[in-house]
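User: Fold this; tokens only.

Assistant: Input:
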Amino acid sequence: MAAAADLVGVLDTWVREGGSLHRALRPFARHSVRTPAEAAAICRALARLREKPSGLSLRSITRLFLQVRDKAAAGVLKKEGTPLLRLWVEDALAGGDDRGAMIVILRVLASYVQPENVACLIAAARSPALGDHYSWPSVLVRVVAAHPHRAELIEALRSPLPEGPWLRTGYVTLCNEAAKDGALDDHPYNSAAGLVHLEQMISTSHESEAEAHAIAALAFVEPAARKRLLGIASKHRRPEVQLEAARARVKDGDPAGMQTLLQACQDPKIHGLARKHLFELGHGDDIPKIPDNQEFDARSTLSAWLAHPNEFGRPPDSLEVIDTRKLHWPPTNDERTVTLLKYVYDDGPKRQTVGIGMVGSTTFSLVGEATAEMSAAELYGLHCAWELSDNGDARAPKKRSAQAGLAILRKHNAGL
């Protein structure tokens, strides 16, 4: 990691000599700002950047505001840096700018508590130029319970409600958290316009995150509307949305919701998600016992991995075992059963994603590398090479490939 003095020197050199600030900051992508001197250097460079703006450079230096590990340094950035960042938002609102850079700036403004920052957030949310960006949920999630201007922000966006799908997702989540904290007596979506928005999110959204937050909001709307919208969610084409609705119905005292979750435990694609909901609801003891079944376990394991927010965020539409065998597995130096599975995400005629995953050791899918056209032996070889490298094993091939990994596997598995 680069030293603090290095960052100050690099920034001050750039201020004097110019060049690419984005390139100069590459070594500091994971750097933690720990001194007021670093913070002051960031502000000097930011002021210099105003003279000759660059979207990439602006993003690179603004991210440092979110990597502060010192209270005094944060104070310098708050006092001297955030006013400069607000100028860029004003420029964008007046005529457009790099939207990616603006969203990073808005994350900073949401994190640093100042009344002027909240005014900027409100203006940006109401702006056609900035009001519909996929990163809005990551902006509004920073307006936490302790934020003294959270209520002001919620009220400012209450009427009319945000229209952009991403901003809408962020806003309904913000409102849900405030309602859970007991800080919101009247949920903005408990209204005629709000119920229309929730129905749209539940019925037509292609993002399970949006649907889940819309369903969570139903806990704060009047009972008749909640029952009707939960009925719609229960018939959604995607099972994870159905399970989210079932979870809400259990909390509402509806036995049909519990039955849905118990039945879902029998489906390997959604078994893990159903178990998660039941545990969270305090019904872990009611989860039905699943007979030992290697294929079921493999499908359930990969499906849960694929559904993680860091991967696809939802279970696959289809999942099948294409090979399973017992091998001596070099990355773990033992004999174990490993399984390859083919999964499909079907989001329309031209939006189908097909991939191959492996379970039995480190559950993973080498998206873009492991393909259905490869033989099972090649796929195992590729995963072996990847896992050796991931473990920092000296046997890992210098260049990852199916053949390099297969050569290592064949040393331990005759006839592969």
